């Protein structure tokens, strides 16, 4: 009557599989697929979304993401180095910047920078892409700084010591020895930041969108208004996935490759 | 950068707090008259999502139509007062419960079961009527232009705004009106009126085209802005219910007719729009 440990484990595992399959079958049977398709995936409406969703909405999302990430990465690298500097004011500045920008929701930062600065100074943003990307990059920089700092600190101390003892300057050791190794370490969390950034671009529409600057999410939401059907949102969701999944796969590949290189 | 896309959550949560309702004293007298005129409304047939409550979806704050009283936290404004008055006269009196959600597609909410009806300064349109059952109109929906005070004399018409940027709210009749009539201007659409007012002040847009009472309220409170034009669209605001719920639609129509006859409508109108 008493089962061995292995038998018990097999029994439990079998139970989990059986329950999963039963749940899937139940869902398949319970859902009214016709109604679901009509509400979420109406083919005529799907076709209407193209090519605008790619030539306009996707293009804008990609522009915001690239500006945001390029700016965020440069800023993050600078802040990380300041954060680790031996000069105290640098450290103070970087720490304060990171705390503040990371602690305020992007939506609020967007409104403050996008409208508050022009209201206070009379200066105008030159164009909507810059108006949306700059706050995005400033906030991304705060997050990326912490990621980069963690990466730099994860490089064994001996690397810096060895480089310095070979006569390299601190700057040279940092740029040629430490940072390249740190970047290998932070590829996974950096990919994470990038994917989050892609999705965060959907917040920029709070600053208002013209027909030519709308992003994927706004495009989908406008589509819901025009068609009185949720299909455009579902299509927008798939386009986001078409953007993020290849990226995460690329990052996984880079990670595998860098691991292989270290062996 | 992370997890903040749901910044709207606290706002929604606030809106989900059900506003309590007063007016018990008034409704008792109306009950008897309403019941005498058309037989008591069978509350059970209205398919209410919460018993004893009329749950209303609205895009708030949108003064003077829907906003929370600063001290009592009670939902107030023209729409809210009208609905509260009508709800008090249905059956033995229903309480008003408020669910806040964005205006985008709000007319679909009763069908989705989020609420019983929509009261959100919403214009009756053919497009929306295809997916929701509208009541009779209860308010004339005129559009208007709000500009910065220094542009008061220059930007007095849509023609004057050619080549300039006009702010509209996404999914509103103001947006449709602008798309049809302001073809020489750049339209910038926003999720909410607060951002539009900021955009106007910051110089990001040159005018706001939206419902007259909302712009008028702003111009009154904020002397950096001025109301320069209004356009009659011949359209009206209506409440919306699910197309399957004709019983509630009928009850609301009876209520609108009732308060127009007994003077309550004029009383509420005077409270918010009298100059």
Helical coverage of chain B, percent range = 25-40%
Largest interface, and how many residues on either side? Answer: A-B, 38 and 31 residues
Count of DSSP helices of chain B?
10
CATH superfamily of the largest domain in chain B: Periplasmic binding protein-like II
CATH superfamily of chain A: MetI-like
- Overall shape of chain B: it is elongated
- Average predicted confidence as pLDDT of chain A: 90
Architecture per CATH nomenclature, i.e. the level-2 architecture of the largest domain in chain B: 3-Layer(aba) Sandwich
Radius of gyration of chain B: 19 Å
Give the number of DSSP strands of chain A: 0
Query: If you average the pLDDT of chain B, what whole number results?
Result: 82
Which strands sit side by side, in order, in the main sheet of chain B?
Answer: 4-1-5-14-6
Total beta strands of chain B: 14
Protein model, in words:
The complex is a heterodimer of chains A (263) and B (275). Chain A has 263 residues and is mainly α. Chain A has one domain (49-262): Orthogonal Bundle (MetI-like fold), CATH 1.10.3720. Chain A has 11 helices and no strands. By secondary structure, chain B is an alpha/beta fold. Chain B folds into 2 domains: 5-139 and 236-273, Periplasmic binding protein-like II (D-Maltodextrin-Binding Protein, domain 2, 3-Layer(aba) Sandwich); 142-231, Periplasmic binding protein-like II (D-Maltodextrin-Binding Protein, domain 2, 3-Layer(aba) Sandwich). Chain B is built from 10 helices and 14 strands. A 5-stranded mixed sheet of chain B has the order 4-1-5-14-6. In chain B, strands 10-9-11-8-12 form a 5-stranded mixed sheet, with helices on both faces. In chain B, helix 6 (173-181) links the parallel strand 9 and strand 10. Chain A binds chain B through residues 102, 105-108, 111, 114-116, 118-119, 122, 124-125, 131, 139-140, 142-143, 193, 196-197, 199-200, 202-203, 205-211, 221-222, 224-225, 228, and chain B through 1-2, 4-5, 7, 104-105, 108, 127-128, 130-131, 165, 167, 170-171, 186-191, 195-196, 198-199, 201-205.
